[in-house]
Amino acid sequence: MKKVYMIFIALVLLLAGCNTAKQSQDVNPRPKQLSYWNAHPETVPMKSRGRVLPDKRGENNLPTNAAKPHIESIGFLEPVNPAQAVSDVNEAARNLTYIGFFSYRVQPNGDLIPLNDASPLAATKRNHAAPMLVITNFASGNFQPDIAHRIFTDPMASRRLIHNVIRVMKQKGYRALNVDFEHIREKDRQLYNGFLATLLPQVKKEGFLVSTALAPKSSDNQAGPWHGAHDYAFHGKIADFVILMTYEWGWTGGPPMAVSPIPQVRKVVNYAVSKIPREKIIMGAPLYGYDWILPYKKGGPPAKRVSPQEAETFAYMKSLKIQYNNRDQAPYFFYTDQRGKKHVVWFENTQSAQAKFNLIKEYRLRGIGYWLLGEDFPRNWSLLRDNFNIRKY
C-alpha cells in the first residue's frame, strides 16, 4: 500500500511540473503600450464610427502632461468704430495668428465696399498678427443669394472682383483671404465651386493664403440655402484651410439654448474630417452668449447678445446660481427683471471653452476661429495659451 501511495505522489508532482512548464510557454510578456501623444499618429489610434480617437478617451479628460500642440487661431473683427477696433485688436492680437476683417462687401458688378480699416490694420501688424481680408455677399442686413449668383454667372463681374480683391490685399497689406458667401441658392453649388476654382488659385499665386467659411453640416444631405451650396470636400481640396461656423445653434431669433453645444459641434467636426484633411480645419467658437425673455415665443422679442464677462459679473452681483449643462457643455442661469419678466442666459465660461479646446486636441485640427472680437472674455485668452502654442507668421 505504501508503495502504491508513493507512486501516486510521484505522478501528481510530474503532472504539476508539466502544467507549470506549459503555462510559462503560453504567457507572453505584456507588450509595451505606445503613447498616443508620442507615437506617429497613423500607427496608434483606434477608429470609431470613422473618427480617429486617442486610445484612452474621455469627453473632457485628455492628457494634461502632453506637449502643447501648435495651432492657428483667428479672431474676427467688425471695425465699425476704428478706435474701439484698435482697442479690441490690442487686447487679443497676441493670442491670434490672424485677425479677420469682416467684411468687404461684394457688389453685383464685382466692386467692393471697403471698411474703415486703416487704424486696426496698423494695430494688427504691430501686434504681429496676420490681417485677413473677409469678402461676403452681405447687403441690406443679410447675406444676399442674388449677389452671389450674379458673381458666379457674370464673367466680367467675376474678373472684376478677383482684380479688386488682389489689388486691395496688396495695397493694404492683407496676408490672407477668407471667402464667406452664405445663403447661396442650393442649385448654385457647382457655380460656387467654379467661382472658387477661379478665384482662390489666382489669389494664392500672388502669395496669399486662401480660406473659406463653411456652414455647420453633419452630412452632405443637408439642403437649403444655409447648407446646400457648401461642398465640404471641394472646399477642403481648393482652399489652404476652412473655417467651420460651429456656433449660433442658440441665436437671437431662436429658442433658448447653448450657442455652441458640444454634441452638435462634434457631429459637424466628425463629418468635416471625413471630407477635409484635419490639418485644414479651423473650428469656430463664440465669444458671446444670449439673454432670452421667458417664456420664449417664436417672433417675440429677440434675445440680447451678452459677453461672457458681463454675464458672469451680473450673476455674481445678483447672487444668482450659475448652472452647467453637462450634455451641451455650457453654463446658464435664470433671473427675474424689474418688470417681473423671467430670463435665461446661456453664455461661455472657462469650462465650456476647455470643452472646445479638448475637441481640437482630440481631432488634431488646425485651430480655432472666434466670432467675435470685442466681447469681454479675458480668461479665455489665458486658457487658450495654457492649452496651445499659437503660430505666428
From TrEMBL:
Residues 1-21 form the signal peptide. Residues 71-393 form the GH18 domain. The keyword Signal applies. PROSITE patterns: GH18_2, PROKAR_LIPOPROTEIN. InterPro entries: CFLE_GH18, Chitinase_II/V-like_cat, Chitinase_insertion_sf, GH, Glyco_hydro18_cat. Keywords: Glycosidase, Hydrolase, Signal. GO terms for molecular function: hydrolase activity. The keyword Signal applies. Coiled coil: none annotated. PANTHER family: CHITINASE DOMAIN-CONTAINING PROTEIN 1, CHITINASE DOMAIN-CONTAINING PROTEIN 1 FAMILY MEMBER. This is Glycosyl hydrolase family 18 protein. It comes from Polycladomyces subterraneus.
